[in-house]
Amino acid sequence: MKKLLIVGDSFSANNNGWPGLISNFEITNLSSNGSSEYRIFKKLQVLDLNKFDNAIIVHTSANRLYVERNPMHIDSATHCHCDLIYSDVSNNDSKFANHVTWWFENVFDIEQAEFMHQCLIDKIKEFTYNIHTIHLTFFDYNYQDVENLHKLWKKYPGDINHLSIKGNQKVAELIDKRLEDA
Predict the structure, then answer these.
(1) Among residues 53, 46, 37, which one has the least CA distance to residue 5?
(2) Which domains, ranges and CATH numbers included, belong to the chain?
(3) d(CA 165, CA 18)
(4) Residue 95 half-sphere exposure toward CB, CA atoms < 13 A
(5) What are the tens digits of pLDDT across the range 114-158?
(6) What is the pTM of this model?
(7) Which of 12, 47, 98, 168 could form a disulfide with 8 if both were Cys (CB 3.0 to 4.6 A apart)?
């Protein structure tokens, strides 16, 4: 059986969603909730990609910033490696969240973050060049060779990988087609 690697953020972290609906593959899913692009990059950097026939990389938001350990989620089973994004910290009233919110509002530079995000995506594409790789995002940005599924997410929001059951089915169908065409 062919082997498929999935690495990404919370849009791919739950195998009860679209990753579990993909046909005819032995799947290794290393996605995790709240992963920044740098965390995705680090996971790929240590893998032997020759062990896989195909890969799916689910790219995250340029606004999500890497932290080795997030004090807001230290004891969380699902978010212990969650990186920082404004929407998470601005809705939390802890001292840490208030400091990070201040930083996002007063220091964060979106132009720099988008540039670094693009550099990481380019590096990830270099790593995965030798195997058939599908690059996806559910965030509303357009990068070359990264399929934007933002409209699909907005049409089918839900609780499994941020998608409804129908949304997860649509993503799995799209991926099955891309894998068949490989």
Answers:
(1) 53
(2) 2-180 (3.40.50)
(3) 9
(4) 0
(5) 999 999 999 999 999 999 999 999 999 899 999 999 999 999 999
(6) 0.94
(7) 12
